[in-house]
């Protein structure tokens, strides 16, 4: 039988697209393999968001193409954001690629595989808003964790971001379709459901009723048999009192919120076409912490936007010292062609952007240390993810740690613990970004 291997790069939203493609291929009779050396056709589902993601995608394409010589690879297909953004360049500069599918055409993957096997060169570039948002998935996450993508695209039009041009405007999925998918995931044994979109707080505003439906969706999801429901991402200007109350009230919603702020200087934020300022963000975060006990916050920041002064950067540093956000990802501004920010005057050189990023990371390392030190002596519920033979310890995540981006909790026990089990761990040591302890209860 013909074997297909797929590499999924980039964000969780892209991963869901990969899961849809795998399901379509399996339904069409193809065998899915994790071994690229055994594959007849390879699919690279790419990210094209920033320079680092583009570099990673190109390296993956070139590495995979070598299997045409060393394995029995007959065809190489490139899908996703890089394919959408650079169709012409891929055709001209990467002759190793046989078929290209843009973001509106991942549902054409079966035909793309047939073309690749037939030795054809082809491109599927349907309208970026035309791809189906529903459909079966062959999940690539562990059995106990799954993503629920509630919307596609983005309408925020941030000056530095290319996503609206690659994914189209914000498009909410129907509430009933989401609940049907969630029920199926629950029946499959999923215990951690991660609700995702480019901006989950705007869910429903583009539907006929033009109403914020995230609180309603979350209340319905909490009626299902999940243990944790995690939320990514909540935009600061869209967080309502109703949403805060639902998050606070519902025990299944983990008290961990990812709120991308990007900066706090009002001038920089307006240059980014984003709302808010230092004072409004401080008020919001304090309100969230006052209303939601035990809340852990994550944010993302951009340093080095063109024209960012030393004073504006210092304002950002002072804000972080004041509010003590527990989890922070900081990125150096990447001038992406096709975005407004790439054309702004007063571009900042790479060395200075790098210096500013390191300063933020050093500040945040102290926040992480303080947070972890405060956990010592506590008993925490941990989702077990596996066993580490090197340390002879099990490991997993607390509610304060999202998948792939935060730290781990390592723990000792004489019991055999299966991945996906919830256990109680007494925290004894802090190990940088990680924690260590001993099992005292479970599994559940």
Describe the structure.
- This protein is an alpha/beta fold and 444 residues long.
- Helices cover 34% and strands 23% of the residues.
- The protein contains 14 helices and 19 strands.
- The chain has helices at residues 12-27, 51-65, 67-70, 81-85, 87-93, 109-117, 163-167, 175-187, 214-221, 241-249, 266-271, 278-291, 310-323, 350-375; strands at residues 3-8, 31-32, 41-46, 75-80, 99-101, 122-124, 145-149, 151-152, 171-172, 192-196, 228-232, 253-258, 296-303, 327-332, 379-388, 393-397, 409-412, 422-431, 434-441.
- A 6-stranded parallel β-sheet has the order 2-1-3-4-5-6, sandwiched between helices. A 6-stranded parallel β-sheet has the order 7-10-11-12-13-14, with helices on both faces. A 5-stranded mixed β-barrel has the order 15-16-17-19-18.
- α13 runs parallel beside α14.
- The chain is globular and about 60 Å long.
- The two termini are 41 Å apart.
- The model has no long low-confidence stretch (mean pLDDT 96).
């Amino acid at each position: 039988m013909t074997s297909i291997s797929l590499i999924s790069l980039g964000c969780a939203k892209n991963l869901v697209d990969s899961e849809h493609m795998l399901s379509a291929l399996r339904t069409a009779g193809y065998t899915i393999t994790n071994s690229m050396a055994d594959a007849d056709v390879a699919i690279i589902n790419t990210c094209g968001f920033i320079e680092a993601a583009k570099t990673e995608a190109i390296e993956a394409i070139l590495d995979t193409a070598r299997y045409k010589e060393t394995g029995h690879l007959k065809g190489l297909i490139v899908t996703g954001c890089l394919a959408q953004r650079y169709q012409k360049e891929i055709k001209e500069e990467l002759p190793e690629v046989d078929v290209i599918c843009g973001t509106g055409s991942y549902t054409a993957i079966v035909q793309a595989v047939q073309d690749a096997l037939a030795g054809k060169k082809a491109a599927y570039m349907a309208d970026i808003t035309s791809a189906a948002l529903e459909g079966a998935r062959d999940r690539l996450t562990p059995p106990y964790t799954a993503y629920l993508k509630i919307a596609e695209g983005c309408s925020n039009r941030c000056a530095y971001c290319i996503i609206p041009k690659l994914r189209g405007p914000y498009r909410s999925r129907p509430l009933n379709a989401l609940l049907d998918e969630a029920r199926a995931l629950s029946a499959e044994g999923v215990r951690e459901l991660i609700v995702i979109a480019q901006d989950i707080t705007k869910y429903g505003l583009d539907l006929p009723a033009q109403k914020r439906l995230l609180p309603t969706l979350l209340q319905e999801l909490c009626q299902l048999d999940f243990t944790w429901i995690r939320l990514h991402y909540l935009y600061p200007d869209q967080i309502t009192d109703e949403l805060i109350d639902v998050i606070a009230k519902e025990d299944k919603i983990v008290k961990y919120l990812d709120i991308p702020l990007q900066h706090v200087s009002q001038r920089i934020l307006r240059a980014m076409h984003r709302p808010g300022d230092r004072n409004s963000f401080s008020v919001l975060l304090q309100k969230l912490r006052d209303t939601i006990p035990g809340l852990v916050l994550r944010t993302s920041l951009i340093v080095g936007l063109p024209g960012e002064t030393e004073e504006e950067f210092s304002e950002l540093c002072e804000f972080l010292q004041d509010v003590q956000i527990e989890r922070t990802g900081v990125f150096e501004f990447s001038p992406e062609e096709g975005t407004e920010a790439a054309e702004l005057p007063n571009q900042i050189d790479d060395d200075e952007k790098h210096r500013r990023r390191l300063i933020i990371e050093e500040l945040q390392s102290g926040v992480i240390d303080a947070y972890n030190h405060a956990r010592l002596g506590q008993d925490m519920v941990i989702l077990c993810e596996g066993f580490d033979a090197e340390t002879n310890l099990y490991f997993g995540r607390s509610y304060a740690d999202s998948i792939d981006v935060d730290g781990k909790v390592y723990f000792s026990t004489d019991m055999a613990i299966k991945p996906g089990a919830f256990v109680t761990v007494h925290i004894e040591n802090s190990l940088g970004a990680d924690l260590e302890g001993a099992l005292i209860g479970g599994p559940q």
